[in-house]
Write a structure and sequence with these properties.
By secondary structure, the protein is an alpha/beta fold. The protein folds into three domains: 84 residues, Arc Repressor Mutant, subunit A (Orthogonal Bundle); 101 residues, D-Maltodextrin-Binding Protein, domain 2 (3-Layer(aba) Sandwich), CATH 3.40.190.10; 103 residues, Periplasmic binding protein-like II (D-Maltodextrin-Binding Protein, domain 2, 3-Layer(aba) Sandwich), CATH 3.40.190.10. Helices cover 45% and strands 21% of the residues. It is built from twelve helices and twelve strands. Helix 1 packs across helix 2 and helix 1 crosses helix 4. The termini are far apart.
Length: 306
Amino acid sequence: MHLSRIDLNLLVVFDTVFTAGSITAASRKLNLSQPAVSHALARLRDVFGEPLFERQGRGIVPTPLARSIAGPVREALGVMERTFGQAAGFEPTTAERHFRIGLREALEPGVLPALSRVVCAAGPRLGVSSARHDRPRLETDLAAGEFDVALDVLLPAADRVPHERVLTDRLVVIARKDHPRLRRMRRSGWNLDAYLALDHVQVSSRRRGASLEDVALQSLGQARRIRLRCQSHAAACGVAASTDLVATLPETYARHVLERDMYQVVELPLAGIRLETYMYWPANAERDAANRWLRDQVRTALRSRR
């Protein structure tokens, strides 16, 4: 199939329908009529020799062919968008852009309020979408345009992906306000022995394995008594609020999420733990004006939240 046979606008329609999941939603996003979108899909069917979407009930679903080309089409459109962006520059007051940010659950409460403020204030047609990224696929997803930037700990992919450290945090311990043992411990002397005497919630998105604080304890030949392992900091906060278990969380998460009248917050009596957050972006977006602008807004947002 020769490229001259394809109207590249058809690929934009395909990508929008595939992402939106319906012709109606895609037509609104593209500012086209539904018949125009349907006509574009019919032209693509002629190009590929088979349909890309099929009716299912009152909606449509992508065919195996559509699923196989969706990633390459998205990547190609991203490359073209960045190419034209580099040539034309980026003016936030007039640009129409929805930036995609890869964020883990613990970072969202501290990052998104400040970031959405600076982005939305810069232009009336700018927006932000946050989604959880798959760490092993980060390099691929950035290159494919799935994310404009991603924030995470230092990952193996950092050897191949542009990145910079944007935040350093520490851990704190939270417990319910009327936790009797912690209150007594704080009066008599809050130290590592007191921390280890408590029952703990461990937070990890992985199925098994030690968390950062447990690795530090292991290096001292110590271990805490873990009564519950859960996936999210929000769940750990709920458990700590209603039981005598305590949770160890990033300080910025605790500061932005906790209702102070419900919890006690104390320092983690364990030295040397630093939580470092890095910003990653696509290697081919180094000179992209829009991506550079977004990275500046992320830095501004993180500075404002400290």
